[in-house]
Design goal:
The chain is of the alpha+beta class. Helix content is about 40%, strand content about 15%. The chain has 15 helices and 15 strands. Helix 5 packs across helix 6, helix 10 packs across helix 11 and helix 12 crosses helix 14. It is globular and about 60 Å long. The protein binds protoporphyrin IX containing FE.
Length: about 575
């Protein structure tokens, strides 16, 4: 393809033979045309070539993950899960937002001991995903476009602005931990561990940043796929609920219960198999000419372990299109393994890659997914939504996923019926604990400048925008919304992407928490966003790939428009 040889592997055995057994030559990464220094810059460990920097960074990443796993990830996933269940109970249609808040807040806590950077992290991470995905930026397909000079390249401008913001975010986060360590108030985090051990904080800033990036957007995919799976396979939701109720006698699954909940672990693993979060894998590169089964593979070829294909192998996964956690629990299946107190688990699963480049985040993935899916099954009966007009189930797609490197199901309708009043009372109780902590954390962070990102960690500026203004909006949410300050930015260059609006809103009657909003103008997102001016609809567009970052998918009425702001 345009002068590069690509090798696609859709068999786990072949992937293992090449990428693991011949790891000495198959552990490099290819150059990403739209991020041409990815192999050398030391910014993103997962994208580095097989260099000394990669080896050092991978060792550090592995050490931090191990240390954190030993302390059960400081209980952060469980704390955020309780908040997540509460959000889901309050407003199920906004599940995309709640899922992403759950994953990005959890990983922010793990990385820096605070959830505060989560919103900006989501923003910068999504941008990086676009930068490196084949479908996210044209130079990744038409590689000669990488030679377009920076001033003329919309991709370079966009990436430059994104990177600058990310850099400021990561520096600010590390500064925050430093300050808190100095005061003896820092919660457990990867960065704190490095500081306590006298490690290289400068390098750790990048490694921990990459770990946060890796966790912020990936884990949401299987949580959303779980919701999709139980809409199509309600019998597995029932089996899961039977196990949870039978074993825990009404309690909500905690990480300590994992040995006793094999069905829950099987559901977690099967969701990942059924809908691989990284369906095309992250490519390796081969450093020397090689021959395998009569095929010549030239040095420099890009090697893709096609995770999707691997999960469709009928010898390993009979009836592969079916969502069937039973394949991990019943000795009649080739994937069954004993003892069930330990298996199934995610260690060594093909979906996390091969050889020396395997994923380092499995302890986080495993705990986040166990708690999130276990909590959802414990609290809700998820089912297809009934159309009030026809009385029929509304359409839920089967496999309509987003096109970037990390694939997620596009939005679909469902109902989340609370399973009992008692459970909802417990959700509220546990949320109160999480909320009290959040209040304290908000106060702590108040005096701290998170890279000038604003008191709520909202993106404050972006070089891709060229002028700005401030105006007021009122949101349409059953008449109980409080109008809040909104920042709007005009973009004079329609080809330069960026946020058009951002701001925050809160209910004046306490019916929903303060939330942040971001609206974009173009991109691949699917949430429609309507903006009206002076009561009339002035424009309608899809929110950018970030989706609508607030809790609502509202109509926004602009009340006051500054002279500098122009509709275009
Ligand atoms: C559902 C969630 C996740 C999935 C499906 C996933 C999957 C993957 C895959 C397929 C690779 C490439 C492996 C290869 O090249 O052979 C990878 C690499 C990596 N992952 Fe994950 N990952 C997930 C979450 C995480 C999390 C939470 C972290 C946080 C620490 C993480 C850290 C990494 C790192 C550091 C690498 C690069 C390793 C290297 O290049 O040496 N991942 N992951």
């Amino acid at each position: 393809m345009f002068g590069t040889v690509h090798v696609w592997i859709s068999s786990e055995q072949v992937a293992h033979d090449l990428l693991a057994k011949r790891a000495t030559i198959y552990s490099d990464r290819p150059t990403i045309p739209n991020l041409p220094d990815n192999r050398t810059s030391g910014e993103y460990l997962a994208l580095l070539g097989r260099t000394e920097t990669w080896k050092r960074q991978r060792r550090l990443c592995s050490h931090l993950m191990h240390t954190s796993a030993l302390s059960s990830l400081h209980g952060y996933p469980s704390l955020e899960r309780d908040r997540f269940l509460h959000q889901m109970a309050a407003d199920p249609p906004s599940y995309l937002e709640w899922v992403e808040q759950f994953t990005s807040r959890t990983v922010s806590r793990l990385a820096w001991g605070t959830p505060h950077p989560a919103q900006v992290l989501r923003h910068t991470t999504f941008g990086l995903l676009e930068t490196i995905s084949p479908s996210g930026a044209l130079p990744n397909i038409l590689s000669f476009l990488r030679h377009v000079p920076a001033w003329a390249s919309p991709w370079k401008k966009k990436e430059g602005a994104r990177k600058a913001l990310e850099e400021r975010l990561f520096r600010a986060n590390v500064g925050f931990v430093e300050e808190r360590v100095g005061r003896g108030e820092a919660g457990g985090s990867f960065i704190r561990t490095v500081m306590e051990e006298g490690g290289d904080v400068d390098e750790a800033r990048r490694v921990v940043g990459l770990m946060a990036i890796a966790g912020a957007l990936t884990i949401g995919s299987p949580i959303q796929s779980y919701l999709l799976a139980v809409c199509h396979y309600p019998e597995w939701q029932r089996k899961l609920q039977d196990e949870i109720d039978g074993v825990l006698g009404g309690g909500c699954p905690q990480w300590e219960d994992r040995e006793r909940l094999p069905t829950l672990r099987a559901v977690v693993k099967e969701v990942i198999r059924w809908r691989p979060p990284v369906p095309t894998g992250i490519p390796h590169a081969v450093e020397k000419d090689d021959v395998y089964n009569g095929y010549f593979i030239p040095a420099g070829a890009t090697i893709h372990a096609l995770e999707w294909g691997i999960t469709r192998d009928e010898t390993m996964y009979p009836d592969p299109e079916a969502f069937n956690p039973g394949r991990w629990l019943d000795s009649a299946y080739p994937t069954y393994r004993e003892p069930l107190t330990q298996y199934p688990n995610l260690a060594g699963f093909s979906q996390f890659g091969f050889g020396r480049r395997t994923c380092q985040g499995i302890p986080i993935v495993e705990q986040d997914l166990f708690l999130a899916m276990g909590g959802l099954a414990w609290a809700f009966d998820i089912c297809k939504k009934r159309d009030p007009a026809t009385g029929r189930d509304m359409f839920v797609h089967w496999n309509d996923y987003t096109p970037l490197l990390i694939a997620k199901p596009t939005k679909f309708p469902f109902d989340a019926h609370p399973r009992s009043d008692d459970k909802m009372a417990r959700v509220r109780e546990r949320y109160e604990v999480a909320r009290a902590l959040e209040e304290r954390e908000r106060e702590e962070a108040e005096g701290y400048e998170f890279a000038d990102l604003g008191p709520e960690g909202v993106v404050d500026d972006d070089v891709s925008r060229q002028s700005g203004g401030v105006f007021q909006v009122e949101e349409d949410k059953g008449g109980v919304g409080e109008a809040k300050q909104f920042d709007a930015e005009e973009e004079s260059d329609p080809d330069v992407p960026g946020l058009l609006y951002r701001g925050s809103s809160a209910s004046s009657e306490g019916s929903w928490p303060e939330t942040e909003w971001e609206y974009g103008r173009w991109g691949s997102g699917s949430a429609p966003c309507v903006v009206s001016l002076d009561g009339g609809v002035a424009g309608e567009w899809k929110a950018d790939g970030l989706g609508v970052k607030g809790k609502h998918e509202p109509e926004v009425r602009v009340l006051d428009i500054p002279g500098s702001w122009r509709w275009d």
